[in-house]
């Protein structure tokens, strides 16, 4: 339905044009029709079954039905469907290794309307997956390992007593080199970047660089648990394009990890930054926390501030290496299939190895923050130059590590919905070694496939009848 100049046009009602007059009979008929459709969907067997099986939810009785989906503020089916089609195409491609055969199977499942166009689209998807690891995404510059906090999950084991620092002139040179190399973002991180002993000089240098390195963006990752003045806020705003702030749940969980009083200080500072473009929150929580009070507190704060929120798992690295952790991914009953497809579905052939670069304060380069040890060094950017590091066979070899090269992953038909496992969970110096246990990843990928099918109104039975699988478990571990 669209509104223009006080008039309403409704799809499905040919030549229907009425004024926005609540007393107009035609207007009443339109909205009576919409009301009848909504009520029919509310009392449909599919919707009521979902209400009973899922239990309490923020969506109440608005669970299953395209109109109910719009009424509750979920992504519009028209916007979600292309991503869902991409997901099922990726699975069909993983099964057949052939765009032509994949299109034929999707045609049998009732998903394809034009076989030629579908084959062309799947061929483009295959090329995208093959080329994906050839790009460059983020250059992470650890400008210092000093930090005003001492969090119990920090992969860098930062604290106020660490002294490793990257000179400002080196930061500036590496940012310029990263832009020239084609990275999408230069991420200024640590430690706490604002604990750098030349903090103001660093921000001034970034402000001077910022307009000269486009389209690359400068991102500041910070705990924001320090004193802010209006002048300092303005300096930060001039220096970076995005600010990613760590906020790990509610006050209790955040302070337990980061120290008493840090939550209140960070939230107060967020209020001062709320009008800056590019502000977002990142929460590192386990799966139960993400769907529990801690995750809900982060979502509520993001909604209050009008900024985005991203959740990341706690990884067994740094201070968290001794914690009892296992790979896990959250699943929320409050999310329907369209929300899962819109917010959590990403078709990928790689976890990001060979696409990112992690640079320590002394200029030592590593392929990943999960692979930041002496045996994984790529060389020193300060001595060898960033171009030499990126062009070396050692770095290029990581680009060849994908779900198609891994002996375990290549057997899985859900591999492109997974993208591969984080090497923090690895148990071998070989980055292409099979994962120890990918059960959680497989469950998540399966959920994405089922959600994509639901979005497209294709049943699991219909999908399987076409010769396409919905596996309940990963392939036998090597």
**Beta-strand content bin:** 5-15%
Q: What structural class do you assign from the helix and strand content?
A: alpha/beta
Q: How much helix, percentage-wise, in residues?
A: 40-55%
Cα shape: globular
CATH architecture descriptor text of the largest domain: Alpha-Beta Barrel
The top-level CATH class of the largest domain is Alpha Beta
Word description of this protein:
Strands 9-8-7-6-5-4-10-11-12 form a nine-stranded mixed β-sheet. A three-stranded antiparallel β-sheet has the order 1-2-3, with no helix packed on it. The radius of gyration is 25 Å and the shape is globular. The model is unreliable at 1-19 and 330-335 (pLDDT under 50). Strand 2 (7-9) and strand 3 (18-19) form a beta hairpin. The chain is of the alpha/beta class and 478 residues long. 43% of the residues lie in helices and 10% in strands. The protein has three domains: 2-71, no CATH class; 78-133 and 401-478, no CATH class; 135-325 and 354-395, TIM Barrel (Alpha-Beta Barrel), CATH 3.20.20.
